[in-house]
Amino acid sequence: MRPITILTIVGILSASLLAVVEDLTREPIAIAKEQMKRKAIEQIFPFPFDSLRTVTTEQTTFYEAYNQDNAIEGIAVETSTEEGYSGLIEILLGVSPDQKILGYKVLFHRETPGLGDKIDKPKFKEQFKGRTLENTNWKVKKDGGDIDELTAATISSKAVANAVVKGLEFIKEQYPKSSAE
Amino acid sequence: MNEALNIFTRGFVKENPVTKMLLGLCPVLAVTTTAINGLGMGLATTFVLLGSNVVIALASKAIPSTVRIPSFILVIATFVTIVDLLIQAFSPELNQSLGIFIPLIVVNCMILGRAEAFASRNGLWYSIIDAIGMGLGFTFALLLLSIFREVLGAGTIFNIPLVGEDASTILVFALPPGAFAGLGLIIAGLNSLEKKMGDKK
Amino acid sequence: MNELSGLLLVIVSAIFVNNVVFARFLGICPYLGVSRKLDTALGMGFAVTFVMTIATAIGYVLHYGILVPFKIEFMQTIMFILVIASLVQLVEIVLKKVSKSLYNSLGIFLPLITTNCAILGVALIAIQEDYSFVTSVVFAFFSAMGFILAILLFAGIREKLEEADVPKPFKNVPIGFISAAILSLAFMGFSGLVK
Questions:
Q1: Cβ contact, residue pair B63, A25, below 8 Å
Q2: Domain count for chain A
Q3: Would the CB atoms of C74 and A15 count as touching at under 8 Å?
Q4: Average pLDDT, chain A
Q5: Position C194 in a domain
Q6: Is position C110 within any domain?
Q7: CB B108 within 8 A of CB A43
Q8: Which residues have C-beta within 8 Å of that of residue A51, sequence separation ≥ 6?
Q9: Which parts of the chain span the membrane according to its record (chain B) (predicted)?
Q10: Is residue B29 within 8 Å of B90, Cβ to Cβ?
Q11: Does C15 map to a domain?
Q12: Owning domain of residue A38
């Protein structure tokens, strides 16, 4: 009987120790996650913002960035595609209130290092700035569109364009008014 | 004191857990794409090893041999979970890049091995020294491989670029094959180095 | 139909594209340890398949049945490793009773399996990827198949290496890693197969 008792005691001790540690770290973890989000959003907006409001809908999550006067300066949206060379690509897309692209950041991808992973390099990202749903033919140049594809990574380039279009459509749906301005 | 020094230093070269004993290789190969990851993984493992060695050195006499292994695993898993929570709270970037390999520290055979072979048979003081020596030896090997891979594969060291943005690097070292090849080359290098030093004596 | 093709993707991905050994770096210790001979490699492979599949199934049930409802997901690591450890012990006892010959051939591998990170790793990945129960079990089984494929390939190469004239510093372990690197390079050719 003794071995079982000892094992139980060890189990109870470790479980209670973990409960304490979990309790202590719960808030720091939540804060750290929030800060990671904020850092990512700060990277896609070229301006400093004062406060952030999160809008969660069924499809995705929107982040509204406000300046000191409480006017909206930018909207960020999480969007994704399964069309990458190795499946899922997740990006955070930032647009201005008139729904022009300010920039994006790749949150998750499994594209080939050295080829497809250039979708997260400034050189490729630069071309998206200022584009809107309407002013751009969202195909790659190979297919007669406006998007410069990456050498040897056409699929990854197309996938990013798709994800961006999806994000722009989400924003248009969620903020129909600002588009009419 | 001499004994303590011996226990401390053997983890680095003579009985290095990675290059000599081939223990805990999964994280060694998986997370060594950048020096920061390698260092983070090494230190996290050292922390767990220290915690488990201390507890096991103190408690091993009270634990009957029939439930020894399950108890040891419980102790190790507890420390791993603590490290996991702490990394999540204070270094979310490291958490993201180490990912699943943080919980997998629990099955790092080096830790159970030290608990079995050393901490359960030695006093607290030696067990602490053993944990730090072995842990730092493990970290040292991780750092060696990760610097090798980061410099060749990404052209950076601790994220500081060594070459221009557009320079092409030997990408294969950032990929899985480079992990295997890198470790093979490092062990071969250490082997021949050791042999040369032995010859001189 | 859609579900079926989804499963097929998981299968191909688990065996080839994301092979546990070559792409995920799980189970390296037994990969190097028992791959000297083809038949021991196969024995280890079967033992791993058995424990991996059942551990992932039980882990799935416990995760969604206990950890999530009670909001104690941080106990995941402890829970899973205990499941694996007791499962290994159980398999050992049952095998001893049921089939002496099977026990004799698999028995020596069982204790090694507890610290095989592939088992815990696969169980954790199944949760992380939000797989359904069926997908998780299929994923675990075919990840184990990928593991068997890896150790069999490697065992074959190693038997040849025994006779090869290898430069001294590279003898044994280093040349093993170099061969593993080449194998892993070959497996990279499968990437892009699954979208």
A1: no
A2: 2
A3: no
A4: 86
A5: no
A6: yes
A7: no
A8: A65, A66, A70
A9: 39-59, 71-90, 96-113, 125-148, 168-193
A10: no
A11: yes
A12: 1-43
The verdict on A26 and A65 lying in the same domain is no
**Which residue shows structure tokens 């696969």?**
C122
Rg (chain C; Cα; Å) = 18
The answer to whether residue A71 neighbours chain C at the CB level (below 8 Å) is no
pLDDT tens digit string along A136-181?
888 888 888 888 888 888 889 999 999 999 999 988 888 876 544 4
Both A76 and A132 in one domain: the answer is yes
CA–CA dist C130, A12 (Å, integer): 30
Percent of chain A with pLDDT over 70: 97
Q: What is the pLDDT of residues B10-66, one digit of tens each?
A: 888 788 888 888 888 888 898 998 899 999 999 999 999 999 999 999 988 888 888
State pTM to two decimals.
Answer: 0.87
Nearest to B32 by CA among B136, B108, B107, B138: B138
**Local structure of residue A51 (DSSP, 8 states):** E
Please give the Cα distance from B169 to B147 (Å, whole number): 14
Copy the structure tokens of residue B45: 């493992």
Look at B85 and A25 and tell me if their CB atoms are within 8 Å: yes
| CA-based nearest distance A165→chain C, Å | 20
Same domain, A58 and A100: yes
A112, C195: Cβ pair inside 8 Å? no
Residue type, C65: G
- Give, for C124, the enclosing helix (H) or strand (E): helix C117-128
- For residue A159, count CB atoms less than 10 angstroms from its CB and return exposed for 0-12, middle for 13-18, buried for 19 or more: buried
What gap in Å lies between CA A98 and CA A134, rounded to an integer?
Answer: 12
Do A63 and A36 belong to one domain? Answer: no
Selecting from A7, A36, A113 the residue whose C-beta is nearest the C-beta of B67 gives: A7
- Integer Cα distance of C76 and A163 in angstroms: 33
Token pair in block for residue B139: 């970290």
Amino acid at C191: S
Number of structural domains (chain B) is 1
Contact between B184 and C168 using a beta-carbon 8 Å cutoff: no
The domain total for chain C is 1
Q: Which of C42, C46, C29 is nearest to C180 (CA)?
A: C29
* Distance (Å) of CA B84 to CA A123, B14, C10: 36, 30, 28
Please state, in angstroms and rounded to a whole number, the distance separating the CA atoms of residues C40 and C163: 19
Closest CB to C170 among B24, B107, B188: B188
How far is Cα A172 from Cα A101, in angstroms, rounded to an integer? 12
Kindly state the helix (H) or strand (E) to which residue B147 belongs, with its residue range: helix B124-154
What is the residue range of B155's domain?
A: 2-200
DSSP code of B118? Answer: I
> Computed over its alpha carbons, how large is the radius of gyration of chain A?
22
Whole-number Å distance between alpha carbons of B65 and A167: 60
> Does residue A145 sit in the same domain as residue A175?
yes
Q: What is the DSSP string of A18-50?
A: HHHHHHHHHHHHHHHHHHHHHHHHHHH-SS--S
The two three-digit tokens of residue C75, written as one number: 């106990």
DSSP-derived letter for residue B63 is S
Q: Does the structure's ipTM exceed the value 0.90?
A: no
